[in-house]
Specification:
The structure is a homodimer. By secondary structure, chain A is α/β, with parallel strands linked by helices. Chain A contains twelve helices and twelve strands. Chain A folds into three domains: 54 residues, lambda repressor-like DNA-binding domains (434 Repressor (Amino-terminal Domain), Orthogonal Bundle), CATH 1.10.260; 131 residues, Rossmann fold (3-Layer(aba) Sandwich), CATH 3.40.50.2300; 133 residues, 3-Layer(aba) Sandwich (Rossmann fold). A six-stranded parallel beta sheet of chain A has the order 2-1-3-4-5-11, with helices on both faces. The first copy, chain A, binds a DNA duplex through helix 2 and helix 4.
Chain lengths: 341, 341
DNA sequence: CTGTTAGCGCCTTCAT
DNA sequence: ATGAAGGCGCTAACAG
């Protein structure tokens, strides 16, 4: 059986209150000698306080929850990693729950909230969900949202700067490479990242004085297959684009496949750029030009915000922060400079 | 303030014991009417039991811990996913701790164990660590080990069948494709997976009556860079191999890079096969022939074993199980049939 | 079928 | 500087 505070107290000839003090915040209110004695006995008995009991008494759990829409691909690994690192340094344990066939995002949140499992949660919301808002307002624990959505402004929010990333790479195609015939394959309409990326694309064209061709904006689903289909759609247009901006790398890879299949050479016959800079980009031939995202930074930043809130719990709250993680462009060989024909 | 069991009891005009019963294992020992009444009040007050308190009273936490050596790449995502799915279906929360710059594997384990945070742990051990054994034996909670190591036989162990995978793909190179000059790039010596893969390679050669060339066995570190260096080493030999079996896909990708750089064409001048079947394999040109591993299955299987143990806690223990997840070969275009010269 | 009561292990006033 | 005692919210005998 594991040693409890009583064992230590008895062996040290003091009361449990003293042991508790010697080990907690107010070490200094215990006479150095008895403190020392207690430490030694703790070591001897390999004692450490039972967190469950501690947290029951203190009304905090010492854990934070991370709610993910899914766990797939290294994007989520990076998020988890970032959150894990920071929560650890803050002395918190990390509980992870993701949606899958048997659990949706709402259940994940409720699981943490209702049962008081965590002191705060980092919540990733990829697309609209009405229930979430009412749930969050009902339970009063700190929440940081990872999402590029509008609304929820009373919460801390963190996301990559989808808009800026899309705008930049489109602008790069136009200004640096001289392209004018640029199509895009968007992500799912309800997905916030997809929305922002589309907007960045459109605004970059507008700002450059280029027309927005509806036929050159096709919606897809962020998968490779989806990219393949969308690409063949674009290539079958009478007026074909010279470059395709795929809203993520998966779909860009899909474009590679389709181009390959139909006999278009990248970058000569068709340029392709992506978004995310996932691991396989460097293995595509030719190397994909894409938008680089520091994913683990999202995890780190959001967790820092959460810990900030948690440590401030009683004091007056600071106003919510809304942060964007900036992006960069990775130049590959998947687009060439537009030749004046 | 959140409702407690007392609020429900008061409002229902019963004792807290009855409420507790109505909500717990022995629902049936409560009169249906009062049970119904209690349910309604719970809903009305949006009550759910505080897990922390519950677990203090029951001496179990309702959580399991997952200890990872690192979180990087989609290998770990798949593990987490598998564990998450199963632990959820078993009604357990999932705590994740991975090693990183500020925390090693031992600290991760101790974090869970000492503070009684979890009822059991899934522990991934990629390489030898002496401390682990003594720690595990000290704390008596169920542990399932994910590792292809020898020893620790008193614990449930799960791993992919590294040996079989390596043996099979080597045998495939020999018997199906007719190769005889096969080199290998191993992973780190202390890594268990690497050890088994090397052994599989060696035994397949032996069983086919082929000699083991020391020069054709080079150790590396499972990284792309490492694969590049090892490959150039092999290609600089006077007696060059025809095919390289890289012990993971990263290193296989490194071989692609080096081959490319030095002017060798894959598969004509050099064959390459890998291990793991990570996402980018399908994007390599030519497509990589590699060993497929069902990673999420590892997570699922090991968690199932853990839950099995947890549900049996008081009854007599079953003997430990040691399971291997079988592998398969993904045929790409990175090796050709040996032409009889 | 239901209520009473004693913990679970720790923290935290309130006294001393 | 230390001890005694009352919770935290819930479960689990033990009575009735």
């Amino acid at each position: 059986m594991k040693a409890t505070i009583y064992d230590i107290a008895k062996k040290a000839g003091v009361s449990i209150a003293t042991v508790s003090r010697a080990l907690g915040e107010n070490r200094d209110k215990v006479k150095p000698e008895t403190r020392e004695k207690i430490y030694n006995i703790c070591k001897e008995l390999d004692y450490s306080p039972n967190s469950i009991a501690k947290y029951l008494a203190k009304k905090t759990t010492g854990s934070i929850g991370l709610v993910l829409p899914e766990i797939q691909g290294d994007f989520y690994t990076e998020i988890i990693k970032g959150v894990d690192e920071i929560s650890y340094s803050g002395g918190y344990n990390l509980l992870v729950a993701s949606s899958h066939s048997r659990r949706n995002i709402v259940e994940s949140i409720l699981g943490f909230m209702k049962e008081s499992m965590v002191d705060g949660v980092v919540l990733m919301i990829p697309s609209m969900n009405k229930q979430i808002e009412s749930i969050l307002s009902k339970y009063q624990i700190p929440v940081v949202i990872i999402s590029d959505m509008e609304g929820f402004d009373e919460y801390d929010k963190v996301s990559i700067d989808n808009y800026q990333g899309a705008y930049s790479i489109t602008e790069y195609l136009i200004k640096t490479l001289g392209h004018t015939k640029i199509a895009t394959i968007c992500g799912p309409e309800e997905n916030f990242d997809a929305q922002k990326r589309k907007k960045g694309y459109i605004d970059a064209l507008k700002d450059a004085g280029l027309p927005i061709e509806k036929r050159w904006i096709v919606e897809s689903d962020f998968t490779i297959k989806g990219g393949e289909i969308a690409c063949s759609r674009l290539l079958s247009l009478k007026e074909k684009p010279d470059v395709i901006f795929a809203a993520n790398d998966n779909m860009a890879a899909g474009c590679y496949n389709t181009a390959n299949l139909l006999g278009y050479k990248i970058p000569e016959d068709l340029g392709v750029v992506g978004f995310d800079h996932v691991a396989f980009c460097d293995f595509l031939k030719p190397k994909l030009t894409t938008v680089h995202v520091q994913v683990s930074e999202i995890g780190r930043v959001s967790t820092n915000l959460l810990l900030e809130r948690l440590s401030n719990k009683n004091k007056e709250d600071r106003p919510p922060k809304h942060l964007k993680i900036s992006t960069g462009i990775i130049i590959g060989n998947s687009v060439i400079k537009k030749t004046t024909n």
